[in-house]
Design brief:
Chains A, B, C, D: This is Glyceraldehyde-3-phosphate dehydrogenase (NAD(P)). 4 copies of one chain form a homotetramer. By secondary structure, chain A is of the alpha/beta class. Chain A folds into 2 domains: about 170 residues, 3-Layer(aba) Sandwich (Rossmann fold); about 160 residues, 2-Layer Sandwich (Dihydrodipicolinate Reductase, domain 2). Helix content of chain A is about 35%, strand content about 25%. The first copy, chain A, starts with a strand and ends in a 17-residue tail after the last helix.
């Protein structure tokens, strides 16, 4: 099998992580990354990756800033089977026709609308329907986590209705000097917030309503859910349903993982690149079931959670790996995904 | 009618506000305040209020710090009909027998447990049942807001079930150098959190479950609710039910009041003492009703919201004002309580 | 003597405080305030002050938002002797010709450059030179504090050279949801920062260099100084020099005033409008003198410190009060300015 | 040459980084780490390192928590040539006699006082004097940075007098839920702060005074200096002096590295373990020289900066590497230390 040649347009929070994850896949080659920045972000990248300018103007600016660009976006695209577009909101929508014209398949990100590609992607939920398409949209970090969690309960036949409150981090750490919030919270200006309908682009049958607000921190989102179950269930049934799904890990208050920063520090201790957590981290000891009602709280590392989905989406579009389970396994083994951060990591079983 | 002689034991966040509110009541006299602090907090108070030492040791320390104490707690109590105890959690429980032995009625605060006094108080809900008692407990800021809001909907026959997520401020501004949280959130270690059962100490019939977490800010709590109504209702019915209850004010995103700090600044602009907001501030334009389900978000100024309840509790214990409506009106007029902060303040109608 | 008719153009952080301070002056009338906002800020103002629209467009928008504007800026100016322009940076410069054409004297704020008016103002330093001018600029909060402190030491013949590090609050509380910094510090992009030269527009002889950075808080600036004295001096000499100057107050770590928020809370306890502190708060027990070198730290309440200077500037331009000392006394008594926040406030001596 | 057998007592912020750095040294073996924690911190460590209990009680507790401890501290010490003690402040002082009794050399950390070991260590300044000693103290993060920077200028004959303002991060990220500061700054209660004298324990001749305060962020300290030079010098002379010293790297505002968080993000992009920065990061374009006065600002990654010094201190005590330059080179190559983060990393020259 030939490797999939992948380009990344947009070398920001998501783009740089996707590029690094592509480098870890034995069935993919990273052709390069494109951006318009000329500062430390791209200078640092240029020391280890092929860098392209997303625009002619950016090419000019890169020359002026001594960034060794290897060409412009078209030069990158000419060598790619798939491009992952992680440019800012709404920019990718404008790029899509260009990708199509060049016959390059495209993975867009959650800032774009569902209608742009007509397909929204979370690997465990709808990998199959993306196979062979020319494009798909990996949904946002919040939506990805919702689909993973609610999808897991739905797959187990347990979920009737979900009502969630999402407290988002205000801004990403790298840009926290540019514009954040200070000593306040900022509720979304409408209820319901958009994440519920967004999750329905992947799982149309979900009965889900979300309320969202920004909190005064830069690290990870956290979600708090009240779930109406289809029937009275035990706590173990709920936990088993979550365990049966990929990319969900349990953390525990009783282990001292009592706050968002604790989990972030644990990721650093685990030696993860950039301290990333690709899993949704569910507080196991907060999972509470009372009759047919369940309560859940989990943490979403917004900078990284969509990276494995993006890798799977690349495979799905090309059709080189026909089933979700295999792609998820390949991705997860390459990253070192875990179901529990404190038990010894399992040795990958290369026979299975 | 004789004025009620009131002492305040504990001159902290709540105690100092209660003292100031007592000074505004025409039917009350502030005998003095007692504390163990000897620093700026009590030095500043001593320039304008009679200060007592809560303990013998504190009296000694006050002498050493040139704080002109007028005696110890017993000297204060000897002159009081009612004492408001705002000492730290669990201290008041130990003080209660002393108050009883001296025949001084006592208002405790929400840090104490319900069983300490056997009565938990929110004026609009159960003023009558406090009349003539020797003590009551004004419930905490979060619980007070829950009883006001859910109680209003319950009184209108609209509330079936309430599920709320409470994001608490991490610490009060005055002590934010001593121990807060930084760049994180800290969920309560159990679900449900204690506020639901606490609200049931005032309104036993409520079907309410809360999930709580601390946010990385110092100003005000915010609550996000999903409400199951008893029937399909219109948005106006929900708003009318809230408007019919006291101490609830509407704010609007459309007026630019889009975040916790906006409302805090408005209170400063209104010239309120310490910038206090005694009302629960409901975002009117976030009130959403969908069939028999309603969604709400509101803001709780935790430093001040229990002050009017405490004033009413003083009256209820003494029995000098026999009905809740009259006491609430007296308190609210003295403070300048409002239903809407941006319409011109109503002139008090002294004939009604 | 006729009262001075004052208008305020720009009802923001400074403008609203200036308006309130004008209302307290027995020799001034507030004609009204003008702004372009149509949200809660101006709606709240309109309930208690005459509001004008700064522009025709704003007048239109105010009508649409039910803000009862009494006219446009020209209508306001037609009734004014002096206008205080607190519009955002560089806007006032464009307004100045208009004020001049209408014969209205103008007080600009520190966001403007010195050259716009040709005169920069701090009451204690150069009140006399502003008398009769058509305009002056009250320097910024940081610069005002520098002139007060260094000017006091200079006036006592003690100051040779001053090197300061200024840690600025990142944003004002009211706008902390719009754009602040989070979990970081942001140094000014050049050393020296502009505040040193800015202080020299008022006190040309100062040998002063400043380094500045933004800190991750919203409340007050703090300055840390190393001062080369003209000779070996005692700590008392330095303290006496500071005490001899107006609008400097001492706070003490030993009183528990150990952090920026402590002082802010004290202002709230003192019942000050919006919790304002107009004084520079010098930590008395941090004043350290070692031979001919002194070290100082103080706190600058940036939202309020220029208010008294602005009031004095109004008087100076009109020439109605010929000397600085009298104007400063009138202003300070009206506001309740203090030299020490914890000693009993002095009764104003109306005979002096 | 035999490898040095190293144990680490205290697996906290510093201890865990020292353990990882020891693993990278070809002339050292990590025997194990000891701690009293039983939560996620030690559970995660136990999956990849030999873990010991620092006390008998801790051994008991580890058993109860299923942490597979390999023995107690004495068992660890029995196998060690050198122990690095990173236990909390003042604990190590009590441990030292025990280490001495067992003939294990000890590296203590900056929380301890100089007198405990009688020797304070910064590799570039006084490696030689530590050779053969039974113990030394690696000075604190702030002091290490001061010695590196001022020492570099002193070594070049340029430094007469240094006056610095140190803004410390309030707490480390991992414990930011336990007790930080919020929306304030907290000045040290004395001027000068202790860092100046502490630097003099390593470089006795320095004329240095520091003022310190805590800022409301969790990431890295920043220092702002006014330096009196021994003579008029050029900016290039100052830069050259800094370049000639080890473990100082230049960052530039012009590269977009404009705030503390920018540099932290760059470290994550560089793939460093835990995003660590062992270098002092000096803002090159903020280095300003005016006659015989220079101004500097730099950033100190407090969690990591003392790690290379600790590694060198291990070598110095054992005497296995007789000169500072060789030890520094070994350490720096193993970690990937850099002088500039944006130029391509130099290939280690194994011939030199």
């Amino acid at each position: 099998m030939n490797t999939i040649r992948v380009g990344v347009n947009g070398y920001g929070v998501i783009g740089k992580r996707v590029a690094d994850a592509v480098l870890l896949q034995s069935d993919m080659d990273l052709v390069g990354v494109a951006d318009i920045a000329t500062d430390w972000r791209i200078k640092s990248a240029a020391n280890r990756l092929p860098v392209f300018a997303s625009t002619i103007e950016a090419q000019q600016a890169m020359r002026g800033a001594d960034v060794p660009a290897q060409g412009v976006l078209d030069d990158l695209l000419a060598q790619c089977d798939v491009v992952v577009d992680t440019t800012p909101k709404d920019v990718a929508a404008g790029n899509l026709e260009r990708y199509r014209a060049l016959g390059v398949k495209a993975v867009l990100q959650g800032g774009e609308s569902h209608s742009t590609t007509g397909h929204s992607f979370v690997a465990q939920a709808n990998y199959a329907s993306a196979i062979g398409r020319d494009s798909t949209r990996v949904v946002s970090c919040n939506t990805t986590s919702i689909v993973r969690i609610l999808g897991a309960l739905d797959a187990a036949g347990l979920l009737l209705r979900a009502r969630g409150v999402l407290i988002r981090r205000a801004t990403d750490p790298w840009e926290s000097h540019l514009g954040g919030i200070m000593n306040t919270m900022v509720p979304e200006p409408t209820i319901p917030s958009h994440q519920g309908p967004d999750a329905q682009t992947v799982l149309p049958g979900l009965d889900v309503v979300t309320i969202a607000a920004k909190g005064a921190h830069t690290q990870t989102h956290s979600h708090y859910w009240t779930l109406q179950l289809t029937r009275e269930a035990t706590r173990d049934e709920v936990l088993d349903a979550l365990r049966a799904a990929p990319r969900i890990a349990f953390i525990r208050m009783s282990d001292g993982l009592v706050a968002l920063n604790s989990t972030v520090e644990l990721m650093r201790d685990l030696g993860r690149p950039r301290g990333d957590m690709w899993e949704v981290a569910v507080w196991e000891d907060l999972v509470t079931v009372n009759g047919s009602e369940a309560y859940l709280a989990y943490q979403v590392y917004n900078e990284a959670i969509v990276v494995p989905e993006t890798i799977d989406a690349i495979r799905a579009l090309t059709g080189t790996v026909p089933d979700a389970a295999t792609s998820i396994r390949l991705t997860d083994e390459s990253l070192g995904m875990r179901q529990d951060f404190l038990t010894p990591a399992e040795e990958p079983d290369h026979d299975r």
